[in-house]
Amino acid sequence: MPSQTSELDVLARLWDPETLQDPYPFYGWLREHAPVHRNPSGGVYLVSRNAAVRAVYQSPDLRAIELEELVAKHPRWEQSRALRILSQVITSTNPPEHTRIRRALSRHFTLRQAQRLQAAAEHHCDRLLAPLATRVKDGERADLHHELTQPLGMNMAGDIIGIPQADRVTLAALILRVLASLHPASSDEALQEGDRASEEVEEYFAQLAAERSKRPCGDLISALLSEVREGGDETPEQGLTRAEFMLLLWGLWAGSFETTVAAMGFGVLAMVDHPEQARWLDGGPTEVKSFVAETLRYSPPVLVDADPRIARRDIELDGVTIPKGADVRPLHGPANRDPEAFPDPDRFDPSRNTSRMVTFGHGVHHCLGANLARMECAVVLTRIRRTLPGLTVPERPVLRPAMSLRTFERFPVTL
Fold it and tell me: How wide is the angle at C-alpha 247 spanned by C-alphas 102 and 361, nearest 5°?
């Protein structure tokens, strides 16, 4: 660790393979020694204490970055189609646009909707888990990520949005190519590959939306089409513009399953690493909910918030003055293990109060898909627990960065 924290490139350290495998010792050091750190690469301010992270999400003195500002800071964004789209999704908008778009979307992401979709999640999980269970019971090794959690997350996202079954694998591969290209260290060639994949995703959704306009179904595409206001380029007081609708489809597909897939994987690791606490999954809905919540606190998939938040004026966080115009990013991992918010934070304890965790953001930036993610995690963990109670991980899963996420490349399991 450098003696001068100003020299420390935290972003590079977070994507280092060794840190990626176990970032928590580094998180603890950072939270103690540089809780608000101006990173030498990118010039972003990284915030790691729980109270300060929650303040970042709540503060009216921080706003989403405008595309023109983003291009000025990062010239590659002007040439990249995928990066430009990413900068315009709902999490990158400011009120009143953010409020209007979120209102149009939020009615479709309620707790009741998550409960209605539970039967679909159980069906997909049982269908995928059965052949995996047969193989491991026969003494074979399986890949939990590729054989269960990733296709489960993909199919749930497809069900919700309204993507035909036959198109899901191809469309998932395209969006994974996009996300891989958005890694901060990506080459220009990789970014161009992501742009080509992004263009294919856009063209696909344009065609699917045209079909749904003629023949609506009970899916999210059809529901959101009813929110579109045909007023040319004029921004409506309610509902969505056509451009916002298309951006939502791209953003929902890009963000609707990769984080949940990672969360499922970390939940399975929690079962294996903490067998005494895994008994909570044998209880009722309240106990299962508590186990899932602690998993989400203990191992959040997001390494660093991907959405820039720009200081409207000079502000102070944890004794550090952040200048007007600076880019501020919360770090979920260290905030979720802050001893000021969670006593004995490195202990996995489903009985604890997790209300201060920031895994899904906070305030107006709380993730709309949180209820669905919790439900999907509960389904997969309880079914694995029931079907394969002796599941083991013969070697640690291989992790990889996907833009701002800490997720899985391979996840070997046996009995």
Answer: 45
